[in-house]
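Appendix B, example 12.
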Amino acid sequence: MSRRRRLAAMGIGRWQRFGARMVINAAAAVIVSFIGVSLVLGLGGQSAGGFFALWGFEALFILAFILVSQLFLMLFGMAGMLFNILLLSMQLVSSGAMMPRELLPDFYRSISEVFPATYAVEGAMNLLFGGPPADRAALGLLAILAAALLLGAASTAIRRPSVQAAAVKSPDLNMN
């Protein structure tokens, strides 16, 4: 019996799976960011913003990255992995981590505003080395996170119930 069929037989629908995925994503972001910040500071790194500010900001940008990556998988299935690879490459170039954004062509500067890496680099640099508050970067990440969450929910809402789920609900179609 397939995984979807077993879940449907237990009464776990697409919204329950979506909700569980979001809870797991948020927990993973909090735990991974705690470990990351603890290692950075424990191994002699500096943080002008303090442990909790860095931890919260890192959890925020990890969650934004997770939701954006999962969005493409939700929209395009396994083909979404190709979009994720392309998106990650574009973010690496346009974020300002490799080269200052002011030196980039206009195309990369304009698309950098919609990618979470730009805000992650900006906020992390400010929190680690000092500078302006990371408020602008955090708001940018929150906007991207909200958009990814809404698009993921819309994708879940318009997705038709799978054939396996329909087969479990209808006894005449249920062939073991």
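The mean pLDDT is 86. The helical segments are 3-9, 14-42, 51-76, 80-94, 106-111, 116-129, 135-158, 163-169.
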